[in-house]
Each structure stands twice: as C-alpha cells, then as structure tokens.
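Structure ticket #2291
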Amino acid sequence: MRRWLFIGMLSCLIAVIIGIGEVMTGPASAAVESLSSDFPVEPVQIPLNADSSVHGWLSRGAHDGGVVLLVHSIRSNRLEMLSRARFLNKQGYGVFLIDLQAHGETPDHLRCP
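Resolution: structure written out below.
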C-alpha cells in the first residue's frame, strides 16, 4: 500500500514539473510598445526567409564606438535590456536589441534556408 502511495505521489510530482517546464519554455510572443523620444532607436528586421524575420531595435552610438548585441532572458522581450542599452549608449556604444524566436515580435515559426 505504501509503495503505491509513493508511486502515485512521484507521478504527480513529475507531472507538475513537466507542466511547469512547458509553461516556462513556451512561446512568449507579444507586441513591443514604442519608446519615448529620450532613447531614439531604429526598428530593424533581419530576414531569414520569405515569411519570417527577427525583430529588433538599433540605437547608434558614437563614431567608432562599436555595437553591443543585447539578448533578453527566456519569457521576456527586448524591453528587458532597455536600461543596459541606455547605459551603454551613453558610454558611446551602439546597441542592438533583438527579440529571440517566439518572444516579443519575433514569430515562433522561424525557418532558416
């Protein structure tokens, strides 16, 4: 009897862990709101094929300052990197913020040629 109770509880625990994993790693697509004028950016789309592209923003820095690619964490979008982008841009660096696949405005059906 105790063995079946243990197996039942273990099965439930495994199901909960799998469910949490599905929620945490699933798509997090969302519209990305526009920015205020204090941090000018250019919208950028990097085409991968005829119907999909990676969406992002580019803010140019000082001449010869270099460009830093900022990538957000899972279940987020490029807005998460905005404070870092502002800091780096004030230091003279250009910043490029992108939305990963199935996050923000980048679709979840990207197919590379």
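Closing remark: The two ends are 56 Å apart (CA to CA).
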